[in-house]
Amino acid sequence: MNSKLLKTIATGVAAMGVLGTTLPLAAQSRVNAAAMDSFQIPSRGALLNAFVYIAAGAGPHPAVILLHGFPGNERNLDLAQDMRRAGWDVLYFNYRGSWGSPGDFSFLHGIEDVASAVAYLRDPANAKRLRLDPTRIVLIGHSMGGFMTVQATAADPSIAAFGLISAADMVGRIPPNLPTQAEPTVVAEVSKSLAAEGMAPLAGCTPESLARETFEHREDWRFPSKAEALKTRPALIITSDDGLAPFNDALVAALRKDGDTHVTTHHFPTDHAYSDQRLQLSAAVLAWLKTLPIAPR
Description:
Order of helices and strands: HEEEHEHHEHEHHHEHEH
Number of domains: 1
CATH architecture: 3-Layer(aba) Sandwich
Strand order of the largest sheet: 1-2-4-3-5-6-7-8
């Protein structure tokens, strides 16, 4: 080995020694800085791929669980980053059977997975690690994520507030009070609609299996049926020109009829992904979050 190479190696080793003495100081400067933590959430025997954007500061911070749609191409992580800058921790995860999370995807599994995500944040050890307040949790969902938000919030009275962005009532297009014998016709139509959305990122399901699930729950999953359970929580309901506004408007009407005076609504003239209204969408979400009693002060 020639002397020049030996000198290069010696210099590198020396540099490593210097770095070894300075890393702790660098680490100290990152205490309570904004951060990201990735992990897996246990849910009914499966592990959901997840991460949290952790807000700067010692906290504990309020938290948003951000729920993606069907199949989840639009993740809304620009909103997540904006919410973190505003002082919120933001949890994002993939339901069972979606985008690499193990297990079989179904709408019921997704509802269960949201409950598992809430339970994960409420675990004292996790809450401490993520610098969040487990009593200050908000659910915000886009498209099918809005459906998950409605179902999960209705089932858990301790969720502080909920937000819907072009929420998809997964049973809303099925006429009410249909007899059982209508199932083949409904399944065929719903299957066609789901397949058109693209199901490549989803495992353990077919358009037909998901369509049958919607028919089975055609009454108990309908948005207006959840108004009684939701009416005590502040709500943000945002719609666009994607054809889903009538289902969201029906929920708004039901909430207000049941006495909810804390419903904030917005409509943006854009597509389902809010492609040319991202800044406006974020501004609306942040403005609403700021009004909540649990918001950072």
